[in-house]
Amino acid sequence: MTGRLEPQPWMTDADTVAVMDALAAAGAAARFVGGCVRDAVLGRSIRDIDIATDAVPDDIIAAMRKRRLKVVPTGLSHGTVTAIVDGTPFEITTLRHDVETDGRHATVAFTDDWDADASRRDFTFNALSLERDGTLHDPFGGIADLRAGRVRFVGDAQQRLTEDVLRLLRFFRFHAYYGKGAPDPEGLAACRAMAPALARLSAERVQAELTKLFLAPDPIPAVQAMVDAGAARVVLREPLDVDRFGRMVVCEAEAAKEHSTLIAPNAVRRLAALLPMDRAAAAEIARKLKASNADRDRLVALVEPESEIAAGMDARAAQRALYRIGIERFVDQVLYKWSMTGDAGQWLDLIAAADGWQRPRFPVSGTDVQALGIPAGLAVGVLLSAVENWWIAADFAPGRDACLEELRRRAAAAS
Question: What's the pLDDT tens digit per position in 336-350?
Answer without folding.
Answer: 999 998 678 889 999
